[in-house]
Amino acid sequence: MYQKGNxxxxxxxxxxxxxxxxxTLLNISNAIGMPKPSVNDILKKLLDGQVAGVIVKKIGTExxxxxxxxxxxxxxxxxxxxx
Length: 83
Known about the structure:
The chain is of the alpha+beta class. It contains four helices and two strands; from the N terminus they run H-H-H-E-E-H. Strands 1-2 form a two-stranded antiparallel ribbon. Helix 1 crosses helix 2. The termini are far apart. The mean pLDDT is 90.
């Protein structure tokens, strides 16, 4: 398991959000083996827009990725002036 503060923990939660049929706090925690308080902290960051290029919303008890930008494509636009 990644230590607290490791950015890979965010990717684990995002991966669970993307893969699970019912991505609730409990289901995400069980799927990735991370304590619920830790998952909850990451979900709060995602809901607050603290992760660039990712928009997550809570619908009832489930979390949903609304937008997940292709960072490579966005960076290419910057360097090729194709905005």
